[in-house]
Amino acid sequence: MSTLYSSLLSQPNLISLTSTPTTTSSNHTILSFKPITPTTLVFNLVPSLAFSATTPKRHRFLTPFAVAEETATVADVSSRKLYVGNIPRTVNDDELANIVQEHGAVEKTEVMYDKYSGRSRRFAFVTMKTAEDANAVIEKLNGTKIGGREVKVNITEKPLQTVDSPSVQSEESEFIDSPSKVYVGNLAKTVTSDILKNFFSEKGKVLSAKVSRVPGTSKSTGFGFVTFSSDEDVETAISSFNNSLLEGQNIRVNKA
Fold it and tell me: For the whole prediction, is pTM greater than 0.90?
């Protein structure tokens, strides 16, 4: 019975080495070589192990889990992040954290400040450890008073895709800043930038006016800024409009 030894000597040439019993005068075995048609050779070394001699194909592994994980993380944070509005100007991050953590575990607290005046914008964002903690804080703190002010607490809203969004973006881009500027607080929610500008134009030359919005939404934060062409107009605006009535609320006006 002949024994077959196969090896891959060079591609695509495959050669089999066979020993064939041949009758000779000297009783020797003659070894003969013959080409084998190139095929995929499978070697069965042991019954449980087999492999192919052909070059394996390269596979491209996709990782959809990374995208899904990132989406899940964003969704998780949004369910734990709270908006806390109408807080006193004197309340800072640590003080707010101390108040909130009485009702749940706090991960991060951030009171928002105006980049020009450095004043508190009277609202903050608080990220809780869990969604359950966030819901507990809403239940316990929403509508209660901090420093004599009734605060509003709710889950952070997603950006609104409404007809108001382009106008809000336009207000931001068209606002003309100036060193001659006043801060206007306690604005009614119905006050727009145009209403604010027209109101202050009665006593001076107004360059621009804007109502601050809750980030990502068209909702007013209850305050705004008005810029003038001179410091004299600023002083006139403060003396004329501080504590005056606008859209049913007494506004506060001071130099920004």
Answer: no
